[in-house]
Write a structure and sequence with these properties.
Blueprint (H helix, E strand, L loop, with lengths): L3 H6 L3 E8 L3 H10 L4 E6 L5 E2 L7 E11 L2 E14 L14 E9 L2 H8 L5 E2 L4 E4 L5 E8 L5 E6 L4 E9 L2 H10 L3 E10 L11 E9 L7 E9 L14 E9 L2 H10 L9 E3 L8 E7 L5 E6 L5
Parallel strand pairs: 1-5, 6-10, 11-14, 15-18
Antiparallel strand pairs: 1-15, 2-4, 3-4, 4-5, 6-11, 7-9, 8-9, 9-10, 12-13, 13-14, 16-17, 17-18
Length: 308
């Protein structure tokens, strides 16, 4: 992949991570009460639209953009219930399945968040664990599932908000190279191993490396690329846009046409030409395009709306 892509995505930051759900009201309550997020915007187009941008014939949804204490500057979760077509499938069964794996959410009080999870349809995976940091310190983390089974890593410390989105990679170094060419920066590596993967809901021993990547335009939300030596990564086929779970990560760019030209020059073919779609009453239409990463994860590039 040639470096031309980097120049086009230099200012791009991660805006939101899309999570498809089966019951919007139930999932919204979970993310608000357990994860400490708040309503930022309600996107609910009034009419069915052409779904080409998502690889669908038609598209209509009801969604809440949920934000942390920093608002939209701190990243968001696009919690979306498909109306047409209806939701299908389920999130990945294992953290070792290729593609989008989990989302990381910062919470100031980990024990309180875990205590609320079950009451709002979530499921804690076990007790909190201590995770070593490159500077020698530690941070407390715990895993929970949302009401549809999406894996969430709760990270204690700081203010509420989205921290990262994780991708399980069949070839970790290939994925690191792909995202570096897009302008992402490697921030840290976290090698780890344990004889018993029960805390991660993995049978047997686990040996893995996590690579934290910063977005080209910086920002509060990062990308976590995950490679496994044990167990073997299970390659999964591309997921349809209306499949339950994490389907895309959206980045803001100043000029989506320039970004598409750069992608094509680097032999990355978008899923469609740029499309314009209505977001719902009181919201501007958005122009965007989607493309897939090395493990079929979908990256969306949204053109930054111009001020009126």
């Amino acid at each position: 992949m040639r470096g031309y892509v980097r120049r086009m995505l230099d200012d791009a930051r991660i805006f939101h991570v899309n999570v498809n759900c089966s019951d919007l009201a139930r999932s919204r309550a979970f993310y608000v009460e357990c994860c400490g997020l708040a309503a930022g915007a309600h996107t609910a187009p009034e009419a069915v639209q052409d779904g080409t941008a998502f690889g669908l014939e038609l598209a209509r949804w009801d969604a809440w953009i949920l934000v942390g204490e920093r608002g939209f500057d701190g990243g968001a979760i696009d919690l979306l219930e498909w109306q047409e077509p209806a939701p299908v499938g389920r999130p990945p069964r294992s953290l070792a399945d290729s593609g989008f794996q989990r989302i990381g959410v910062r919470v100031p009080d980990l024990d309180a968040a875990l205590g609320r999870a079950a009451a709002y349809g979530g499921e804690p995976w076990g007790e909190p664990d201590a995770h070593a940091l490159p500077d020698g310190g530690q941070v407390r983390i715990a895993f929970v599932s949302d009401p549809d089974g999406v894996a969430i890593e709760l990270v204690e410390g700081g203010t509420d908000g989205l921290s990262f989105v994780g991708v399980t990679c069949r070839d970790l170094e290939r994925s690191v190279g792909f995202y570096r060419a897009l302008g992402f920066r490697e921030l840290a590596r976290f090698p780890s191993g344990r004889d018993d993967g029960a805390r991660l809901r993995i049978d047997g021993p686990v040996t893995m490396v996590e690579v934290l990547m910063g977005a080209p335009g910086r920002g509060a939300v990062h990308l976590m690329l995950v490679g496994f030596e044990q167990p073997r990564v299970e390659a999964r086929s591309p997921r349809d846009a209306n499949t339950l779970g994490i389907w895309r990560t959206a980045m803001l760019v100043p000029d989506v046409d320039a970004a598409v030209a750069a992608l094509r020059a680097a032999d990355i073919e978008p899923m469609s030409d740029p499309q314009v779609m209505a977001m719902g009453p009181g919201l501007p239409d958005l122009r965007f395009v989607c493309f897939r990463g090395p493990d079929q994860e979908v990256i969306e590039l949204i053109e930054q709306p111009r001020a009126a």
